[in-house]
Amino acid sequence: MNEILSLVLGSMHADLARLDHVAMNLANVQTPGFKREVGLTLPFAARVDRGVQQGLLAGDGVAPESLRALHVDARPGTLKSTGQALDLALAGPGWFEVRTESGAAYTRQGNFRLDARGRIVTPQGHPVMGAGGEIQLVQGKPVIDASGRVFEGDAGPGAQPVGQLRIVQFEPSVRVERLGDGLLLLHGEAAAAPEGSTRVEQGFLENSNVAPMHEMVQLLQSVRHLETMQKVAMGYDEMLGTSIRRLGEPS
Question: Among the listed ranges 87-91, 155-159, 203-207, which one has the minimum average pLDDT value?
Fold first, then answer.
């Protein structure tokens, strides 16, 4: 494929991916704990420079999907009161850890419940992890303090917690993958949140951090840029066609 058209195609693919991210964000405006996703790419000029560095001028080509990555915007959303004992929200940075078939996953979607065994689980049945493993209750009416300690019934002086929620943090640069249902799979290391850095709010849920007006602006910008790249491709193709016709004309 012609080198210029290859670069334009890569830019158009990035615009389409950006539209997918915007659609995902808008579809989850009302989803508790949802964190908006952003597709990151280098600007067009930087893509040209990278193509030259990778030997584009020698005809090696460059993959259209290169230089794209998923970034999760971890900024907190507002909190809403529900009064439910197993509705939990995090005030500050951090993620709840749960166990899935794919291994450890992380979420801010704290609308938990108890399963038939008395374990605290997500709506899909994934166990919510504590510092010592799964958290299992007998009475089913826990009291959870700001540090994430889980008590059965009474959290007064001398009461012994039955477990402590595992709250973790990780660097924004760590690559993540969405598993659906508000879960993130981490391709990197997560560490326990420092004591006091995050507060657990019982009886609250965190709202999505998606701003619909901002997403609509992103939608319009992506569509306009896609249209521009389409015109560039059509103009370049027309220029090539004109050049070929003139080369074929008798001198």
Answer: 155-159
